[in-house]
Every structure is written in structure tokens, then in C-alpha cells.
Design brief:
The complex is a heterodimer of chains A (355) and B (284). With 355 residues, chain A is α+β, with helices and mostly antiparallel strands. Chain A is built from eight helices and 19 strands. In chain A, strand 15 and strand 16 form a beta hairpin. The two termini of chain A are 42 Å apart. The relative contact order of chain A is 0.12. Chain B is mainly alpha-helical. In chain B, 82% of the residues lie in helices and 0% in strands. Chain B has 13 helices and no strands. Chain B has helices at residues 3-42, 46-53, 56-89, 95-102, 104-107, 110-121, 128-138, 148-174, 177-184, 189-218, 221-226, 236-246, 249-283. Chain B is globular. The chains are: A alpha+beta (355), B mainly alpha (284). Chain A binds chain B through residues 49-51, 71-73, 76-78, 80-82, 84-89, 97-98, 101-102, 145-146, 148-149, and chain B through 177-178, 180-188, 191, 195-196, 199-200.
Chain lengths: 355, 284
């Protein structure tokens, strides 16, 4: 493990920002710390950087305990939320700052700054001040500035929060590509699950100062281990009293489950493709239709509960009040904070994926 | 009359009233009295004015005033920077208390400040033995009360909050992420201040220094308490008071002549302040 947190605790007065945090990150990985605001993810990042000090526990970087090493000596590059560029310095001076502090020879600094400006594609902007740059350009400067002294670890605090939605997508791809190109181990903090899923190799989900789950985006999406993760990742409907669905008789009556739209199939009663599944389906009524750009989001009343299903625009049109056949493939069963996948028993012998 | 015209008339009346009263107030309270000072100082001819301004006591008072002003500016710039840096970039216990303490000179009457210094550093004060010991050790004969160092102390006291009060809002608005960024790159305290913090606060600092200077040379009460020797430890305001209190027609004219020096200093400071404000705004 390249970066390791071992039994890290941190309190701010009466607020517990980190409770027994343990994780390890391999060299070269791009990892997201994902959680709602106030979950403690930024505090964890700042502790790795040395901008906050943990109350107890060890922080290990490259096999060395760095608890007592000051922020500036840890060899870490940090991209701040809102970038914190030096307002009274040009792009060039911003990037050169870290190297000047290290008292590198002037020629070396000039060469490195030029190299970085080329890397992030800001040629011709060297003499500009931060307030003469767009949000995306500022991020590039912040990135170049953090990389200038050749850090072994790059930390990014909500790197896309200050950028408008349109450019954000573009920059995500750019940043991921840049980090891959430089090959630096990186950890970034975000509250946006799309961002984490799209950019990160691995995601650590934080909630209330604790790690809920760590894994690849696919793992976390397909096998959420806790009820928090199953609700936080993807869109989902939580049912507090689940019951009456065919194929789920094995579940205790009135248990709590989470159902994602992709767990729900709905079709008209004269549908040919799903003819074989017709006997396993339930009767449902459409109570709401929302247009989501590339698909329709249907709200269905089935067995007294409301479910959400997505419907391709390519399929036959539907209307509110229309009766549909509804099939539930699987649910996440919630038990004491843990989430377990539970499949529809009626479909045991059916090749659902082949449909 | 249609409503538009009515509106126009009403709009004309209220601002007109405000403007007139504002101008009247400005003239009655400021321009006339200050004009009176200049007029009275020159009433008996320029020769009298020149002799008043170059009198031994006046020059001594001018010297003491400038010494007090420069010292107050230097001391309070240094401590003002330290205090605002501490209050805005760090979290610690008792921060609120410290912040409130800085404002004490705003709320305490300057005379009380002067008297407090007498009680502390005077012959009967509890710090007197220490001052004696120090004087003996260094072979000097410095006393803090009824002497120039006392005047300086009193001036420092009353001007204490000016620099920090100008700096704190600016430093607060700036936050500390730029400093953190510099620290992450290994920059040390002084480098962080010089290269990151200072460019942000330079205009506010200069503005605070100007206010501090303006307050310093106008101070009367605190200085009055600790300064009793005319021609030695008097500042310009004290000298003016002494001239005026002497009561003869000639000394009153002299009082106005010396006053005009203060007015002149104020105008210079006002102009500098305007320039600083303008440049500061343009840069922001």
C-alpha cells in the first residue's frame, strides 16, 4: 500500500469528523473519497495533506509514518476547492512558486514551468492573472502548480465544484487523462457520485466520519454492502414495508428494501418479448411520467407501493392511468444497516439476461 | 399636471432638501470653522503667523508630535499585523476575547488611558522599581511619565486598533486557502506572508497606517494626562491649548496659527488617504 490510514480518529469539539478510519491505496491509483457534505471526507484529505492533525492513529505514506512531518515536507501536491491560486501572481509565477520555495536553479524552474504549461495546454496565458482565466483554465493552473515540485501524491478537494455543469464533464475526462499521463497516485474528494464513478479507479464511500465501503465503481454499484451505500449510489426507491410480490415470499413480511429503476421491468400485457415472463408479473398502474431527456421515468403503483422504472423512448408510448405488467427482478434487502441482494425466486430458471 | 411631472417634482424636492441640508451642515460644521482658523491665524499679518509657527515652543511641539506619530505608526503597524494575522489565520481558545481587547482604546476615554499610564509607570506606579532598575542597569535616565516616552506610549495606546481593524476584514474575506497552498509547497511563515498575504493587504495596511497617523497627531486627552512640560513634552494640540488659554489677543492669534499647521497636516493626510483608497479600489 502506498498511502495508508490506520485507526485514524479526529474530533472537532463535539463533532466527530473521522471514526477509526482504515484504508490503503495502491501506488498509481486514482481514488475518490465520496460522501455527502459534512461526512468528513475533506477532513480525511486534509489529514493526509498535513493541514489537519489526527487525534490518534497513524498515517503512512510510502512505508513511512508521516504523523509528525509538516505539510510542506510530505511531498504532496494539493489542488484546493476554488483552487486558491495566488491572485497577485501570474500563471507562470503561480506554477513557479513551489520550485522557488525549494530554491531550485532559475533555469530549471523556467524549463519546468514551460513543460507544465504545455502539459496543461495553457500556452500563451503565462502572463495572465487568475482573474483573467475561466474556471476550467484556473483548474489547469492549480493542477500544474500542484505538480510542479514533482510530488509523489496528488490530493484534490472537490476539483470540479467551482466549474459550471457544461464544462465539468469535459474537465473530468481531461483530469483523468492527465493523471494517467503523469502516473501520479491521486485522491480526490467529491460529493457527486457520477463524478466518482466516472473518474475514479476506486471509490471510498464516507458517511458520518466512517468508511461505508471501498471498491471499484462497478463493485460498489452492483454489490452495495450497507444500506447507506445502496441508497447513495444510483437512483433508488426505499420501501419501508415490502410485501405481496410474487417471487419474494421468502422475505419477511414488511421488511425494508431498496429498489433501483433497473430492477423493475414493465411492459404492456400484449407484449411479445416478455410473453414468457407474463405469469411472474404483477398488475401496475402508471401514476406519473417524467421525461428525463433520453428516457422516460415512470412511477407505477403496484401492490399498494410506488415503484420507479425507466422506459426507452424507442418503445411504444404509454399514458398516465394505463395498466401495465410489472416484473421485479431483484431488490436490496436492508437489515441492520447492511444491504443484501435478493433475487426474484420465480425467475430462478429463466435466462433473464438473455432477454 | 400629469403624474410623470408630479413624480419629477417630488423627486426634485426631496433630494434637493437633502442636498441643501447636507451642504449647509458641511459648511457650518466644517468649512466655516476651519476657514475661521486660517483667517484668524493670518489676521495680524504673515509676520505674526511666521513668528508663531517658528516659536521655540511650537517647533518643540511639532517635533514631539512627529516623534509620537512615527512611533505610534511603527509600533501599531507591527502589532496590528501580528494581531490580525493571529485572529484571521489561526483558531485558538480566547480568540474572541483577544479580538474584543484590541478594541478597548476605542471605548475607553483617552484621559483614562493617560491616567492609567501614570498609575503604572509613574513614580508611585508598580512598574516604577522596574524602570529604576532598568535605568541603573543601562546607565540611562528614562522616565515614562511627564516625558516624551510617556507621550509616545499614550499615543500608541489610543491608536492601537486602527491598523488591525482595517486589516482584519480584508484578511477574513481572503480566507486562508492561498496560505495553505503556499504551506503545502513548503513555504515558511515569512515567505507566506511576504509573497501571498502581503499583496492582498497592502492597501488596507496603508489605509490603516494613515488613519493611525491622523489620530496620533490629533490626540489630546491621553497625551494631556502624561505631558505637563511646555516646550519639552507638549504636542501640537497641547501647545495650541496652552496658547489659547493664555488669553491675550496675541497668544490667541498664535493659537490659530499653530492650529493651521494641524489643519494643513490633516489636508495632506486626507489627500493621501483619497489616493490610497482610489488605488486600492482600482486594484480590487
Amino acid at each position: 500500500m502506498y498511502v495508508e490510514m490506520k485507526h485514524i480518529n479526529k474530533n472537532f469539539e463535539d463533532y466527530e469528523a473521522a471514526k477509526d478510519i482504515n484504508f490503503g491505496i495502491e501506488k498509481g491509483k486514482l481514488v475518490a473519497l465520496l460522501g455527502p457534505s459534512g461526512s468528513g471526507k475533506t477532513t480525511i484529505l486534509r489529514m493526509i495533506a498535513g493541514l489537519e492533525t489526527q487525534d490518534s492513529g497513524d498515517l503512512v505514506i510510502e512505508g513511512k509514518v508521516v504523523n509528525d512531518i509538516p505539510a510542506g515536507k510530505r511531498g504532496i501536491g494539493f489542488v484546493f476547492q476554488n483552487y486558491a491560486l495566488f491572485r497577485y501572481m501570474t500563471v507562470q509565477q503561480n506554477i513557479a512558486f513551489g520550485l522557488e520555495v525549494l530554491k531550485r536553479p532559475k533555469q530549471e524552474i523556467a524549463a519546468r514551468v514551460e513543460e507544465l504549461i504545455r502539459l496543461v495546454g495553457l500556452e500563451g496565458m503565462e502572463k495572465r492573472y487568475p482573474d483573467q482565466l475561466s474556471g476550467g483554465q484556473r483548474q489547469r493552473v492549480a493542477f500544474a502548480r500542484a505538480l510542479a515540485p514533482n510530488p509523489q501524491l496528488l490530493l484534490l478537494d472537490e476539483p470540479f465544484a467551482a466549474i459550471d455543469a457544461k464544462v465539468r464533464k469535459e474537465l473530468r475526462a481531461w483530469l483523468k487523462q492527465m493523471i494517467a499521463k503523469v502516473g501520479i497516485t491521486s485522491i480526490f474528494v467529491t460529493h457527486d457520485q457520477d463524478e466518482a464513478v466516472e473518474v475514479a479507479d476506486e471509490i471510498i464511500i464516507i458517511n458520518e466520519g466512517r468508511i461505508e465501503q471501498m471498491g471499484t465503481p462497478i463493485e460498489i454499484y452492483k454489490r452495495p454492502r450497507t444500506s447507506f451505500v445502496s441508497q447513495f449510489i444510483g437512483t433508488s426507491v426505499v420501501l419501508d414495508h415490502f410485501g405481496g410480490f410474487g417471487g419474494f415470499e421468502g422475505l419477511k413480511e414488511g421488511c425494508q428494501v431498496i429498489i433501483r429503476p433497473e430492477f423493475v421491468e414493465c411492459f404492456k400485457s400484449d407484449n411479445q418479448k416478455f410473453k414468457s415472463l407474463m405469469p411472474f408479473s404483477e398488475e401496475g398502474e402508471i401514476t406519473g411520467i417524467a421525461f428525463r431527456g433520453s428516457y422516460l421515468e415512470l412511477t407505477l403503483l403496484v401492490n399498494g407501493v410506488y415503484l420507479t422504472a425507466n422506459r426507452s423512448l424507442e418503445r411504444r408510448p404509454v399514458a398516465v392511468g394505463e395498466h401495465m405488467r410489472v416484473l421485479l427482478y431483484r431488490v436490496y434487502l436492508l437489515e441492520e444497516g447492511d444491504a443484501h441482494l435478493y433475487k426474484n425466486k420465480l425467475l430462478a430458471g429463466v435466462d433473464v439476461e438473455g432477454l | 399636471m400629469d403624474t410623470k411631472q408630479q413624480n419629477a417634482r417630488r423627486r426634485g424636492f426631496i433630494p434637493g432638501l437633502l442636498l441643501t441640508s447636507g451642504i449647509l451642515f458641511f459648511f457650518i460644521m466644517l468649512v466655516f470653522p476651519l476657514g475661521e482658523v486660517i483667517y484668524r491665524s493670518l489676521k495680524d499679518g504673515f509676520a505674526v503667523y511666521a513668528s508663531a509657527v517658528t516659536a521655540k515652543n511650537t517647533l518643540s511641539a511639532l517635533k514631539v508630535t512627529l516623534i509620537a506619530m512615527v512611533s505610534a505608526v511603527l509600533v501599531n503597524t507591527f502589532f496590528g499585523l501580528c494581531a490580525s494575522w493571529l485572529l484571521t489565520k489561526f483558531e485558538f481558545r480566547g480568540k474572541q476575547v483577544l479580538s474584543a481587547l484590541i478594541d478597548i482604546p476605542f471605548s475607553i476615554s483617552p484621559v483614562i488611558a493617560g491616567l492609567a499610564y501614570i498609575m503604572t509607570f509613574g513614580r508611585m506606579g508598580w512598574a516604577a522599581p522596574f524602570i529604576d532598575w532598568l535605568n541603573e542597569l543601562l546607565g540611562t535616565d528614562i522616565s515614562f511619565v511627564f516625558s516624551v516616552p510617556g507621550v509616545v506610549l499614550a499615543t500608541v495606546f489610543v491608536t492601537f486598533p486602527f491598523v488591525s481593524r482595517e486589516l482584519i476584514p480584508v484578511m477574513q474575506a481572503q480566507g486562508s486557502s492561498e496560505e495553505e497552498a503556499a504551506v503545502m509547497m513548503g513555504a515558511k511563515g515569512f515567505t507566506v506572508f511576504r509573497r501571498v498575504t502581503f499583496p492582498h493587504i497592502r492597501w488596507a495596511l496603508l489605509y490603516g497606517v494613515i488613519l493611525c497617523a491622523a489620530r496620533a497627531f490629533g490626540e489630546f486627552g491621553a497625551v494631556y494626562a502624561v505631558s505637563k512640560a511646555r516646550g519639552k513634552t507638549f504636542t501640537l494640540p497641547l501647545e495650541i491649548d496652552a496658547l489659547y488659554m493664555a488669553g491675550s489677543a496675541e497668544s490667541i492669534t498664535h493659537a490659530f496659527a499653530v492650529s493651521s499647521l494641524l489643519v494643513l497636516l490633516s489636508i495632506v493626510i486626507l489627500i493621501v488617504k483619497q489616493i490610497v483608497e482610489y488605488r486600492g479600489k482600482r486594484e480590487a
